Amino acid sequence: MKLLPTLALVTALLLLGCYSTPTSVLGTDAPLITTSKNFTMKEGWQESFKLISGDSTEVHTVAASHIVSNAATLRIDSKPVTLTIGSTHSVSLNGKTVFLTLDSITDDYAKFTISLTPQSGQPPQGGGQQLLQNGVACSNNSACLSNHCSNGYCCASGSCCISNSNCSVGECSTTTYNCSSITPLSSGFPCNSNSDCLSNHCNNGYCCASGKCCLSASNCASGEVCNTAIHSCAQAATGYTAADAEVKANSTIAGTLLGRFSSIFNSARQCTGGNETYKQCVPNVVVTTEKMSASVFNVTYSYSSGGTGCCPTSRILVITVDLSANTTTTQWIDSSQTTTLADTMSSSLISNCISALQYIAQVRGLACPQ
User: Hey, which of 13, 22, 93, 153 would disulfide with 160, CB 3.0 to 4.6 Å?
Assistant: First the structure.
């Protein structure tokens, strides 16, 4: 009698893009991994797979809980694993060891491999193979204990070296095995790492206070100019707009997190069979932009619910964007909106959207912040 509601829930979540395959919930047709299997998943997706353990076959789950441009956090059963592209990590599942390798990230899709043996050339982090110490020659990040390979050597950050001949700027520290300047460099000087710069910000090969650093317009993207007063790329002075400021704010870590909450809230409102009162109290993320000066804008993110018994509109986050300097300043008004909370809401929607809908409504729409 419980099969039909379960199938209805799975179908609804598939339409929302919450799962990549129906086997994510049922597990009955989960593939058996005998050597390795490739997965392609978007953030929030979950799949099942089987492993042979002794005389029995066990079903496990893998989920993509967070994906950024060069890294992803995956969960095997309840165990989180954060990987950068090309790195491998071993995970023990009831005494059975599997190896996760993050192959690539394309268009917000993480492509990774689960295998019973380490992938060729990929020493596993947390596994049985010894990783390389700083100053040892390397070919990729995952070979190093620091997970940073540069200039052909391991070190903690920046440009790695074993002698001054490896450094284009500064000198080689035989203690940390990275290139550093004896005297911190001013904005506009070439650099290899943040520690080279007086501003502690090295970007695009130059020092500057923040943003994308430059020496001339050739170091900047199309439509940008180099502000040589501060050696930072900025939009060409053809008129700064609120739309440009909103795009810049949305691209920040805080703006991206609010975008994720917006997607979670939209999914909750689409929950099949969910209580309509709760749906009305799941907030919308409203973005407003106020021009403060010729190039400075305040981009405000607020939560607004439609029901009469719901919480009133409340501001959550303000990001001040200076388009001339290409900088942002973040001010959280409700600091409870975290990646952990987003992960909890997303996982709840995957498990049971009706219960998750009530939970989200009570967290954000019914139990108003004091």
Answer: 153
